[in-house]
Amino acid sequence: MVNTVDTAPLLKMSGIEKSFPGVQALSDVSLKLHRGEVLALMGENGAGKSTLIKTLGGAHQPDAGTIEIDGKRVDLSSPMAAIEAGIGVIYQEFNLIPALSAWENIFLGREQSGLLVARSDERSRAAALFERLGVQVPLDVPSRQLSIAQQQLVEIAKALSQDVRILVMDEPSAALTPLEVEKLFGIIRELRSQGIGIIYISHRLDEIFDIADTITVLRDGRYVGDAPASEMTRRLLIEMMVGRSIENEFPKQAAEIGDARLVVTGLCRGAAVRDVSLEVRRGEVLGLTGLVGAGRTELVRLIFGADTWDSGQITLDGQRLNINSPRDAIRAGICLLTEDRKTQGLVLCRSVRENFGLPNVKHLSVFGVMQQRQERGAFAGYVDSLTIRIPHQEQLAKNLSGGNQQKVVLAKWLQLNAEVLIFDEPTRGIDVGAKHEIYQLMNELTAQGKSIIMISSELPEVIGMSDRILVMHEGRITGEITDVASTTQENIIELAINS
Amino acid sequence: MNAIEPKPQRWTAFANDYGMVLVLLFLIAAFSVLTLERQSSTGADAGHVVARNIIATHGTSGTVVVVAGLKPPDEAFLREATDALKAAGVTVAATIGGKPADARRTIEHVLQEGHSIDAIAATGDAANWSIYDRIESVGSDKCVSAAPTLWPTFAKSENVLNVANQTAIYAIIAIGMTMVIITAGIDLSVGSLVALSAVATAVFIRDTGAGTETGVGLMIVGCCVGMGVCALAGIFNGAMITRLGIPPFIATLAMMLMARGLARRLSDELSIQALPASFTWIGGAATFGIPNPVILMVVLYAVAHFVMSRTVFGRYVYAVGGNAEAARLSGVPVKRVTVVVYTLCGALAGLGGIVQSSKLGSGDPKLGLMFELDVIAAVVVGGTSLMGGEGRIFGTLIGAFIIAVIKNGMNLMKVGAPEQQIVLGAVVLLAVLVDTLKRRGTAH
Fold first, then answer.
1. How many CB pairs under 8 A join A and B?
2. Hey, which of B30, B225, B234, B355 would disulfide with B342, CB 3.0 to 4.6 Å?
């Protein structure tokens, strides 16, 4: 912290209230941010973080409370007003026009008049901004061709071009690889040293301790507390977020590991998956990790039949499988919990009950007629055991929170009673409480003798929950870690970048 | 993201489920009020009343002539009045259905034969004819007719049945279209398939059967041929869409052109009229007083509702339209489901063609022109979203009737055809607007 002796903080929000029909999203929330400070805003899904930063970004108007900048009260009645007050918000979904280049996006809506001269001026100003950030971004290609990390840099540059003094970032690391996250942190530290106040939201706890100066915790729309990061422990933070004590973040219970069940030999698909062989044993959680784009998701999609493979062989319990579609894989007893539940896991406009029944129609129907009573009964069991929070089974999937959506997807695969369960980023975007429940579920499954392949980018999770770890790099498996207990994140990263 | 779940308010849920029914009921009520007028006394009921009045005033020994015009209810009047009078022992010297001049000639003929006429049982219209005073020994005071009643022309049973009968064909085709639109597709070929089916059936009956003398068995085979050809066209549509990735709009637009051309070639651009009575019975006759197409429609809707709401196939159709990729990854055979849906849509369009040609008594290559637009309009007004994944079979039935009722009501109120088109266009726009607003309301 550069400047804690200031009398007036850079930003002071006090007594913020906001309600939506039927929901009190924020009640009496206060927050203080100083110049050159990185404040981590923490809380589970639904704690009110997004609502609070939308209030700051002028997207929502608070029902009560005041916002002060440099001790002066400001009225953030619109996104424009927020920008004028020096507040830049980078939401999870970027606001870039895909067809426009980086510098065109940066100056979108603020173009200077005049043709060629102004354009080349804008382009060089954009280049200067990236230089200030110490990064290189292709200036002239359409934004849609930029990587997620590069698009994020464009967003940051755009905010800087507007002379922001307060920069809010909502889950900026969610889609980044570990290396890219390191780069992002370098940039954040640079901005901090320039006196910009930063509000940083993330679900990844280890990052918080790396980057944040202070931590503010929200729960159920209320302010729970704040503390300097140096005085906070991981355990204490989780307890503040969840509101109860959690004994063990990764409650791994190793099951008895038996013979190999799913055996993959020489699987290839273009450049994405190159000659991959692996096996998963009875009762085992096989962690599969690597950088984003290393081919992990591509690999499990091949095993599940979602894409077609060029060559290779898959056997389950010694039987060779001929998998041409997900339907074949499901019949063989393999299921895939996809990375993106909204576009691949759920039919959002249909009810949770229908989503639950979709892969299970064979066992829930007689002569092609759905046995609705049986279906309701089966689903009700999972609603209880997974504590899925829904008002009724006809609730549309799109109206559920991320954690509950994930549980519905889990329920549909559990009902299938598959032998091999592939979980692709099973806890992404899910709050601590729900994560814990999913880990315990994985324990139960392996205790029943099922096999699990778990893809995850969160290394603590990979180390905490796997019996064995495979690391991928550029479509190949570049390392295997059998002694998980004594491995470190650095070991894995080394294998992942394959230096 | 915050888990701020908008709780659906009760009235919006109600409006979502029953809004269209309320609109239909409102339209029926509105047109009933707007077309409320004095109905000339005709039809079976009036015939019965007149017969009873005559027996009450003249006893059963008199001689009576029954007079009515030429409209269908007039026939019912004549039949009912004559039967009732004869049953009571009254002498019915003549039963006249025709123009005033016909009535005058016949009455004069009856008088010349030496009968005296005690009373004339007439419909309201026929009683107002001026001929009676011009015939000696008869006067308009001898006319007995039922008192005119105040009743909406719109709600007369023959009008209601007429509306239902005309809607049936659109509604039958709209079942398949609803399924297609629920899969987030569209089928522009249904209008042409109506013609193709009609022509294929008629050509088959003409060339393999004995024209109007064709037996029932061969006639049924002919209908199967017509529907089968259209089902094949549907399979072709589905294959183009799923195997070659051609957008449904384009694939079915091509089929719309090809099927129309095929129908014209098959029929040599002629209307084929040599069809047996058993064939015209399908679309032209009534069972228990209800037109056959209406019965067929009701049965098909019951089946389709069951299929879409209770079967695995229905579940798959909604899933494919809601999110094809998520459905595929849940083990749904997306391509097969899509092909089956287009096949069903083709077959139902074929059935619609058979009903239509049977009703008109000819297999005509010009049948079904622009049907696809009316059918799509019915589906959209019925609340099925063009984005796919949402919609109800019975919603479409309501939608088809909303359009039919508006058309019929405007006809009765003598609104011109151009104005009708403007109104119908506005109705479709309004239906989509409601859908869009609903979507915006739940888009959190």
1. 114
2. B234
